[in-house]
Specification:
The complex is a heterodimer of chains A (362) and B (85).
Chain A lengths: L9 H14 L4 E7 H9 L2 H4 L4 E8 L1 H4 L2 H11 L4 E5 L13 H6 L3 E4 L3 H10 L4 E8 L4 H13 L5 E8 L1 H10 L7 E5 H7 L4 H8 L3 E4 L3 H17 L4 E3 L11 H10 E8 L3 E10 L8 H4 L15 H5 L31 H7 L5
Helix pairs in contact in A: 1-12, 2-16, 7-8, 8-13
Chain B lengths: L4 E11 L2 E8 L2 E6 L11 E5 L2 E6 L1 H14 L1 H6 L6
Antiparallel strand pairs in B: 1-2, 1-4, 2-3, 4-5
Bound molecules: iron/sulfur cluster.
Iron/sulfur cluster binds next to helix 15 of chain A.
InterPro entries (chain B): Hydgase_assmbl_chp_CS (IPR019812), Hydrogenase_HupF/HypC (IPR001109)
Protein name (chain B): Hydrogenase assembly protein HypC
Organism (chain B): Actinoplanes ianthinogenes
């Protein structure tokens, strides 16, 4: 098995693979939800080590990839304003908006800064009282507690020059939307482990029951993924559809109560558009009314941006598992990580970028 | 941005009413907010995402994960100025 020697414990990996191969009697389609898992699967060739009938469908779990175009365009409009310091995680900078990206805004003189932690943005607001500091608050449930904390901090410090451009997305409603889609082929999910570190596993049993789909909470190291696949395939073969936690070292069933309390205080559920997929009801968070003063969309007049997606890009189908990245005509030719047409080529967690980076150019 | 990395708590301080820690990620040291894992103590391992501890982790799993990340170059990706020219 060609890639096995790259595993941290090749013997353990070989054992798990053997069990998977031995248990499979027919083809199954599994979706890994998290972009970190996609990255790991492609990097280690896990999909190629699995039995032929087992297909890994890459889910929409990359927050950079699914941030809607209109939000990117709003970010670009805010970042271009002269008194603004616009802060973001590094991988947002190359995500194409309708016309340009945050790098372009920076090269044109905009003050766009990469931060490691959202608290760095709060610090910048404190150090620059005469500037407006805006943080781009994207991410799944894993990232949201960090972003929520910035708002609490800003209020506690009495900052009037800090705001958050919020575009948080939630995993469970996305799982429901994927299962409701007419062309859905997904038969089991590897749920995103670190999302569950924060939120626990409580939201999943109703989904598993309603859609009769096994859901296995899975980490994103190669061995974690093999274990997730083993448990999911085991359930499929036995005709079961349960929620299992294959990542207990990082996930407690009750999640992280302190983080969940903060999220309930700072955010409220909203409908959210996912880039390439469209609107998913109840699939996002926005700032609660009582924190409105920290909402960048209210502070800056950017409500009426016009958006235009590249007509070549098929990332919507990629994000829903309907198309493999290398089946897109632009893949590796007009669209590369250096010159991405769609968001799934930008972030290293995006399926197109993962395919491009790891030998999938054949 | 989705990577969550285990690190060892080196020291805990209160900054502006917020519980912060210095955390060691296989040699790289960072300030980390401990508000969501408030009872983590010096010497323990926590899983850190964008500067916030989100859960604890046992030492053996943490060391194994860190070694794996280091081998794959993921720590540089996470803590280097990725995306900056
Ligand atoms: S290869 Fe590029 S153009 Fe094609 S779907 Fe992926 S991001 Fe879009």
């Amino acid at each position: 098995m060609k890639y096995l020697d790259e595993f941290s414990d090749p013997d353990l990996a070989a054992g798990l693979l053997e069990q998977i191969h031995a248990s499979v009697t027919r083809p199954w389609a599994l979706m890994e939800v998290c972009g970190g898992q996609t990255h790991s699967i492609i990097r280690h060739g896990i999909d190629q080590l699995l039995p032929d009938g087992i297909e890994m469908i890459h889910g929409p779990g990359c927050p950079v990839c699914v941030t809607p175009l209109e939000t990117i365009d709003r970010a670009l409009a805010i970042a271009a304003q002269p008194d603004v310091i616009f802060c973001s995680f590094g991988d947002m900078l190359r995500v194409p908006g309708s016309g340009r990206d945050l790098f372009t805004v920076r090269s044109e003189g905009g003050d766009v800064r990469v931060v490691y932690s959202p608290l760095d943005a709060v610090r910048l607001a404190r150090e620059n009282p005469d500037r407006e500091v805006v943080f781009f608050g994207i991410g799944f449930e894993t990232t949201a507690p960090a972003n929520a904390m910035t708002v609490r901090q800003a209020r506690r410090l009495g900052l009037r020059n800090f705001s958050l451009l919020v575009s948080h997305v939630l995993v469970p409603p996305a799982i429901a939307a994927i299962m409701e889609a007419p062309r859905c082929r997904v038969q089991a999910f590897l749920a995103a482990g670190h999302v569950c570190s924060v939120m626990g596993t409580g939201e999943y049993p109703p989904l598993a029951a309603k859609y009769r789909v096994p859901i296995v909470v899975t980490g994103f190291e190669p061995l974690d993924i093999l274990e997730g696949v083993r448990q999911a395939v085991g359930q499929l073969e036995a005709g079961r559809h349960e929620v299992r936690n294959a990542y207990p070292r990082a996930v407690r069933d009750e999640g992280n109560p302190a983080a969940m309390a903060m999220l309930r205080d700072v955010f409220e559920v909203t409908d959210r558009t996912w880039r390439g997929i469209g609107m998913i009801p109840g699939s996002g968070w926005r700032l609660a009314e009582r924190y409105r003063e920290f909402d960048a969309e209210h502070r800056f007049a950017v409500g009426d941006v016009r958006t235009a997606e590249s007509p070549l890009c098929r990332s919507g189908e990629v994000l829903q598992g309907l198309l493999k990245p290398d089946e897109c005509a632009a893949f590796g030719t007009r669209c590369t990580p250096r010159n991405p047409l769609g968001a799934t080529m930008v972030s290293s967690e995006g399926a197109c970028a993962a395919y491009y980076a790891y030998r999938r150019l054949s | 941005m989705c990577l969550a990395v285990p690190g060892r708590v080196l020291s805990v301080v209160e900054t502006d009413g917020t519980r912060m820690a210095e955390v060691d990620f296989g040699g790289v040291r960072k300030d980390v907010c401990l508000e969501y894992v408030p009872d983590a103590t010096v010497g323990e391992y926590v899983i850190v995402h964008v500067g916030f501890a989100i859960q604890r982790l046992d030492e053996e799993s943490a060391i194994r994960t860190l070694a794996g990340f280091a081998r794959l170059g993921l720590l540089n990706e996470e803590f280097g100025e990725r995306g900056t020219p």
